[in-house]
């Protein structure tokens, strides 16, 4: 057993000793949509959490995150005559392979990978003729009700490009533009028609992350 620990330490030491792992807070703005509709408009929300970047040399690293992110949809017909809006809050864990090109004080990066998230809560708003805005907590359906039920776990692909600046004290400020595309529908139909449209989360995120060297 002691020999196994020694081998593990010998493997980890070069990674830790010659790499600068960074961690830090992350904040961003989401532009989300969820399904095809003639009346769909951008749905804005927030994203915040923390990130860790583990480099392996040659500009290659792995970035992992834990974020709270707002997704959903918004539909408007004839201005505000009729609108429906769902704000869906997810707990999300992305994991991405990252490549960075470093210049003096500046760096440019691209990364891609997958995410898993869990739909923790939601709120729904609706209005007719711009009046009587109705706002309520979203009630999840775990079993089929009226031929419909919610799917709260999501999995998808994520890609991001960005730029960072490292002449800010003990950290690096990174600005990123990310696109996340869900592969799991947010709902299921008990007897779906041939032309059924399934709701997939699609989100553009503009974010700032302040990485601190460990």
Brief overview:
By secondary structure, the protein is mostly beta strands.
Structure overview:
The chain has 214 residues and is mainly beta. It has a single domain, classed as Beta Barrel (Porin), CATH 2.40.160.20. It has 1 helix and 12 strands. The strands form 2 sheets. It has an 8-stranded antiparallel beta barrel with strand order 1-3-4-5-6-9-10-12. A two-stranded antiparallel ribbon has the order 8-11. A hairpin with a 2-residue loop joins strand 9 and strand 10 (171-182). The longest helix has 17 residues, at 2-18. The protein is elongated and about 55 Å long. The two termini are 29 Å apart.
Descriptive tags:
67% strand; 214 residues; 1 helix; two-stranded antiparallel sheet; single chain; mainly beta; eight-stranded antiparallel barrel; Porin; elongated; 12 strands
What's the CATH architecture name? Beta Barrel
Using the alpha-carbon principal axes, give the shape: elongated
Q: Order of strands in the sheet with the most strands? A: 1-3-4-5-6-9-10-12
Q: Tell me the number of helical segments per DSSP (H or I, 4 or more residues long).
A: 1
Work out the helicity level. Answer: under 10%
Query: What's the CATH class label?
Result: Mainly Beta
Structural class: mainly beta
Beta-strand content bin: over 45%
Return the domain count. 1
Rg over alpha carbons: 21 Å
Number of E strands: 12
Low-confidence stretches: none
Global mean pLDDT: 89
Question: Major sheet: size, sense and barrel closure?
Answer: 8 strands, antiparallel, barrel
Please provide the ordered H/E string of secondary-structure elements. HEEEEEEEEEEEE
């Amino acid at each position: 057993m002691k020999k196994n620990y020694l081998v593990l330490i010998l493997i980890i030491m070069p990674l830790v000793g010659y790499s600068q792992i960074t961690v830090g807070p992350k904040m961003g703005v989401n532009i989300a949509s969820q399904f095809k509709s003639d009346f769909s408009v951008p749905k804005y929300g927030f994203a915040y959490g923390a990130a860790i970047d583990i480099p392996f040399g040659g500009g290659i690293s792995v970035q992992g995150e834990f974020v709270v992110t707002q997704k959903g949809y918004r539909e408007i017909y004839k201005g505000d005559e009729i609108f429906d809006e769902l704000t869906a809050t997810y707990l999300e864990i992305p994991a991405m392979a990252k490549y960075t090109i470093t210049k003096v004080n500046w760096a440019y990066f691209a990364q891609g990978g997958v995410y898993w998230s869990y739909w923790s809560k939601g709120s729904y708003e609706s209005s007719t003729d711009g009046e009587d805005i109705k706002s309520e907590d979203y009630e999840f359906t775990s079993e089929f009700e009226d031929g419909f039920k919610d799917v709260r776990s999501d999995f998808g692909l994520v890609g991001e490009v960005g730029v960072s600046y490292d002449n800010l004290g003990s950290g690096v400020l990174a600005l990123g533009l990310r696109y996340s595309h869900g592969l799991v529908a947010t709902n299921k139909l008990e007897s779906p028609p041939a032309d059924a449209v399934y709701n997939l989360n699609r989100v553009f995120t503009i974010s700032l992350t302040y990485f601190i060297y460990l």
